[in-house]
């Protein structure tokens, strides 16, 4: 078990380069199953979710050549229909994309239920509704989802909830189906456009991505291609928030600023100075940050994935702020940990009420999920004294080399192995 140790109060300066998007990567890898020749994916982030997915693909027969950790060549022609049991599938949410991809390619699949961060209930009913509309029979047998279709046919599918996962999964299942599929009330996240770009380069016919109606005309087969992943807007947003919290002048390189408009608007409203160019952001905190309210919404609204890091920043702002997560009601586990660090936050009716202007203090805290981890690292950077953050495995699911990147910006931060004699103490903390 590892921990991240941060000695707070040191200003951040310099340039940080952003990786390829995690939430694209975890869909692009399963999408490669649909091709009948080699798919090259470039710009992969070096994170544990990508490592896990690649190893699942290898277990079902894909041949993968890695140029380095960033570029992989996946030959899906050797994949066979095999049960994909719980084990690795449980490690990440995005393993559900194997359902759409295997169903699309082989018309059948048996896959363990997906895991991932606990953020409150995360049903997959809309994915299943879509698969069934395309002609699949879907059953839940001993904790695995079994999908089977004699043939898949196009259908008109209205999503009752705007869902990133369901939109992508239905696209994956529909690209090789007979006829036209229409997804109504589709999600519009940039990662969906990225997946559609890969599928289109593979020969799929997809129209309307980025709007709430997507039309897919099924084709007989898909071929290999080369694809470069878009930059990770959530990683970029996390560093922009860290810079606003503890920076002097930080340049965030390899971003698409348009993907972060809601965050940038809120940062500016707080008094943060931001300059944007085609692929970079320059972030300079103002002298006095002002409290603001945020409500997370589907894209292009304020992203739920930045709510937790942003909450940390708000502890420093002058005045009151209210944070409401309309996407995941349970995504407030970081609040208790921030309170241990002297933040003045109460939760009422599912919203976090933050009384700002707190000077955070170093403490031993635990990341309960990926973005909670980012929020605690930022809190550690801001705090007086030393913080020890456990739950590093969550942070490594989605952030490549976070301690190294922050160190290069001037933070005093390192990853350390928890000593044998400290283990019992940290395990006890995990139970609190
Ligand atoms: N929902 C349903 N039924 C469904 C699917 C979703 O009720 O069948 C609900 C969810 O419970 C949630 C809302 O719809 O309240 C939106 O969920 P969505 O399906 O859009 O989320 P997801 O696809 O499971 C992806 C990202 C999350 C990100 C959300 C929202 C991946 C692998 N995960 O999850 O990323 O928070 O979209 O933008 O793409 C993260 O990166 O930390 C992360 C959790």
Give a short summary of the structure.
The chain is α+β, with helices and mostly antiparallel strands and 432 residues long.
Question: What labels would you give this structure?
Answer:
single chain; 432 residues; UDP-n-acetylglucosamine1-carboxyvinyl-transferase, Chain; 2 domains; 4-stranded mixed β-sheet; 15 helices; globular; binds uridine-diphosphate-2(N-acetylglucosaminyl) butyric acid
- Number of discrete domains: 2
In CATH terms, what is the architecture of the largest domain?
Answer: Alpha-beta prism
CATH T-level topology of the largest domain: UDP-n-acetylglucosamine1-carboxyvinyl-transferase, Chain
Outline: globular
Rounded to an integer in angstroms, the radius of gyration calculated over CA atoms is 22 Å
Which secondary-structure class do the elements indicate? alpha+beta
- Report mean pLDDT, rounded to a whole number: 95
Number of helices: 15
């Amino acid at each position: 078990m590892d921990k991240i140790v941060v000695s707070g109060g040191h200003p951040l300066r310099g340039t940080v380069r952003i990786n390829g998007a995690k939430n694209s990567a975890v869909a692009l890898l399963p999408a490669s199953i649909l091709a009948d020749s080699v798919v090259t994916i470039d710009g992969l982030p070096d994170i544990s979710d990508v490592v896990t997915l690649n190893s699942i693909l290898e277990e079902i027969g894909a041949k993968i050549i890695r140029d380095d950790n960033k570029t992989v060549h996946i030959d899906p022609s050797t994949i066979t229909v095999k049960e994909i049991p719980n084990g690795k599938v449980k490690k990440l949410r995005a393993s559900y994309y194997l359902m759409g991809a295997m169903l699309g390619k082989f018309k059948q699949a048996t896959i363990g239920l997906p895991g991932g961060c606990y953020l409150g209930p995360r049903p997959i009913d809309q994915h299943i509704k879509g698969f069934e509309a395309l002609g699949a029979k879907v059953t839940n047998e001993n904790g695995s989802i079994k999908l089977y279709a004699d043939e898949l046919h196009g259908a008109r599918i209205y999503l009752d909830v705007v869902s990133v996962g369901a939109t992508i999964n239905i696209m994956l299942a529909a690209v090789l189906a007979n006829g036209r599929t229409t997804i109504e009330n589709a999600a519009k996240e940039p990662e969906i456009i990225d997946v559609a770009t890969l599928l289109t380069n593979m020969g799929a016919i997809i129209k309307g991505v980025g709007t709430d109606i997507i039309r897919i005309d099924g084709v007989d087969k898909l071929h290999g291609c080369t694809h470069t992943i878009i930059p990770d807007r959530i990683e970029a947003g996390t560093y922009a928030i860290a810079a606003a919290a503890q920076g002097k002048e930080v340049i965030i390189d390899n971003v698409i600023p348009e993907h972060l408009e809601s965050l940038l608007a809120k940062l500016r409203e707080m008094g943060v100075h931001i300059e944007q160019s085609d692929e970079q952001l320059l972030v300079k905190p103002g002298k006095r940050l002002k409290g603001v309210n945020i409500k997370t919404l589907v894209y292009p609204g304020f992203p739920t994935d930045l709510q937790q890091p942003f909450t940390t920043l708000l502890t420093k702002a002058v005045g009151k702020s209210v944070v409401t997560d309309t996407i995941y009601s349970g995504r407030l586990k970081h609040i208790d940990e921030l309170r241990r660090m002297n933040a003045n936050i109460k939760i009422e009716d599912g919203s976090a009420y933050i009384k700002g202007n707190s000077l955070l203090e170093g403490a031993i805290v635990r990341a309960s999920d990926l973005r909670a981890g980012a929020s605690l690292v930022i809190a550690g950077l801001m705090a007086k004294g030393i913080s020890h953050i456990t739950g590093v495995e969550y942070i490594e699911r989605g952030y490549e080399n976070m301690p190294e990147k922050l160190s290069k910006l001037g933070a005093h931060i390192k990853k350390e192995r928890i000593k044998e004699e400290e283990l019992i103490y940290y395990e006890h903390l995990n139970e609190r």
